[in-house]
Structure formats: structure tokens, C-alpha cells
Write a structure and sequence with these properties.
Layout: H1 6-20, H2 29-42, H3 48-57, H4 61-70, H5 83-99, E1 105-111, H6 117-129, H7 131-136, E2 138-145, H8 148-156, E3 158-159, H9 161-164, H10 170-176, E4 177-180, E5 183-186, H11 188-191, E6 194-198, E7 213-218, H12 227-238, E8 241-249, E9 262-267, E10 270-275
Helix pairs in contact: 1-3, 1-4
Bound molecules: S-adenosylmethionine.
Length: about 280
């Protein structure tokens, strides 16, 4: 049951697509209703249909940004999918540390970081398994997301009990978090390894300038885009990567081949990509 007319739903799909590239299709009305109902309530409006009508009749950049933010899916967890982290630990990071032994510098980009579990999993992996490099090399982990609320959450480095119960080994919880009221806060040695900011994958000028990236993790976000958008994003990422770098996608995003810009590799159950030229 939706409170939106077909043309209101269509208008909403257009603004979400324009601002984030996220494709909403017919049949997703229920999702829109559940995501936008809280905003309609706070605005003192009777329904999501009324909220969309307000966006049509008196456009407000702030309200529009809030609506687009609410339509992002922020599902994530520490060490999501497990096996990519084993491949990172046993193959990718050791290879990068050998290849960069002279510059002692690593640039890592977690594009679409959501509330931060992914970049902080990476920071903990480095501290646990590569302590010397983690403490003495120049390692930058740049975490970005479109959603302002997720950027704030990632910066805060605070997680609920439910969040730390998902995927985080108890030993790492004890070593790298402190209890702070009802939440868990990451310690400063993990926090300081991650720099977080807003970036929209379809606005190249908003993307971080990192001067040659060694590892890109862009996981579980391309699924929301259409094929030309995915291709454009991957091409722009390719242009920012070093020739001997690595690209990791989400498990459900690796089945189709990428453009000839990237070669597909597999180690155990993990599929990853490397630039071809
Ligand atoms: C499902 S989460 C993935 C989080 C994490 N990478 C993981 O795999 O667990 C998808 C994230 O992509 C972000 N996102 C959606 N559209 C985006 C865009 N155009 N630019 C940057 N981030 C975007 C959302 O805000 C959301 O936090």
C-alpha cells in the first residue's frame, strides 16, 4: 500500500537517480514508504505522498538531500564475507608490502564505507597482522560515502552492541574497543588510520585525490547502479589506481566480467581484479 501517486513515485525515482545514481524501480514503493515515513513525520506531513509533493512544489536542497540519504542502503558488518579478509591478509597485503618496500607508502580507498565497519576492519587487520608496517609506514585508508549520516557515523567510530556482535572476533573487540555507555568506541590507534569524508561515486570531482591508489575496496554498492553507471565508475577508479594495484568488489558483484581495464584473479573463494594497463 503506497501513499504516493505514480507520478510522485516517478519524480522520487528521478531525484534519487540524479543525485546518487541509485536505480529504484516500480515495485519498490513499499521500500520508499518505509524509508521516508520517518522524514514525513518529522516534517509534520501526513504521508510520504505529501512529502514527495512538498519536494515537487517547494524544492529544498536540504530536504532533498535527506530524502536521498534515506534511500541509501547501509547494510554492512565487520569482516563482511570472511574469505576476502583472509585473501587480503595472506596474499594481497603481503604482496603490496613487498612491492612498496622502497616507498613504504600505501594508499587504500574504501569507497562506499557506510558506517565504517569495512575501513576499520582493514585498519585492525593491519595492526594485528602487519604491526611493524602499520606503525611505521605511511598508510592512508580513505573511507568515503555519499550519505552524510554514514560519514558522520564512520567518523564517530562508535558501534552498538548489535554491530560489534556481527563479524567481529571477541579478541579484537577486547583489544581495539572501549565500552562507552551503551556503545563501543574504537581506540585512537585504529581511528587515526582512517580518514573519512563524503564523496559521490558519480561526481568525479568529489572523489578523493590520493595520488595513485594501491587497493580499492568498492563492495556492495555497484549493485544499485545501472550498467553504464557501473562502467563509468570503474573507468574513473581505474584512472586513479597504480598499475600493480588491487580492486575488490562485493561477492555478488564479481560474477560478470569487468571491462578490459581489469583482469580477474581468484585465490580460494575470493575474486579480485587488477588493472591490465
Ligand atoms: C550496502 S552499503 C556497503 C558498505 C560496505 N562497502 C560493505 O560492503 O559492507 C552501500 C553504501 O553505498 C553508499 N552509496 C550509495 N550510492 C552511492 C554513491 N553514488 N556514491 C557513494 N556512495 C554511495 C550508501 O550510502 C551505502 O552506505
Amino acid at each position: 500500500m503506497t501513499t504516493m501517486t505514480a507520478s510522485q513515485f516517478d519524480f522520487l525515482c528521478k531525484i534519487v537517480r540524479t543525485d546518487s545514481a541509485i536505480v529504484l524501480e516500480s515495485g519498490k514503493e513499499y521500500l520508499v514508504e518505509s524509508r521516508l515515513a520517518p522524514i514525513a513525520r518529522v516534517q509534520g506531513l501526513g504521508s510520504v505522498g505529501d512529502l514527495v509533493q512538498r519536494l515537487v512544489s517547494s524544492p529544498s536542497a536540504q530536504l532533498r538531500a535527506q530524502v536521498v540519504d534515506a534511500m541509501t542502503t547501509n547494510e554492512t558488518s565487520f569482516f563482511r564475507d570472511v574469505h576476502p579478509w583472509q585473501t587480503l591478509r595472506e596474499h594481497i597485503l603481503p604482496d603490496l608490502f613487498t612491492a612498496r618496500a622502497v616507498s613504504r607508502r600505501l594508499n587504500i580507498w574504501c569507497a562506499a564505507c557506510s558506517s565504517g565497519q569495512e575501513p576499520y576492519s582493514l585498519a585492525m587487520t593491519l595492526l594485528e597482522h602487519f604491526p611493524e608496517q602499520a606503525r611505521t609506514w605511511n598508510i592512508k585508508i580513505m573511507a568515503t560515502d555519499l550519505s552524510p549520516s554514514m560519514v558522520e557515523r564512520c567518523k564517530s567510530a562508535r558501534f552498538t552492541q548489535l554491530e560489534v556482535n556481527r563479524g567481529l572476533p571477541a579478541a579484537l573487540l577486547m583489544r581495539y574497543f572501549v565500552k562507552d555507555g551503551a556503545e563501543w568506541r574504537l581506540t585512537d590507534d585504529v581511528r587515526r588510520m582512517v580518514e573519512t569524508r563524503a564523496a559521490n561515486l558519480v561526481v568525479p570531482s568529489s572523489l578523493p585525490q590520493m595520488g595513485g591508489i594501491d587497493l580499492v575496496m568498492i563492495r556492495n554498492v555497484l549493485i544499485y547502479f545501472d550498467d553504464p553507471t557501473k562502467a563509468g565508475i570503474l573507468s574513473s577508479i581505474h584512472g586513479r589506481m597504480k598499475p600493480d594495484s588491487y580492486l575488490m568488489l562485493g561477492s555478488s558483484e564479481v560474477s560478470t566480467g569487468l571491462s578490459s581495464d581489469f583482469a580477474r584473479h581468484q585465490t580460494g573463494k575470493t575474486i579480485y581484479f587488477r588493472p591490465t594497463a
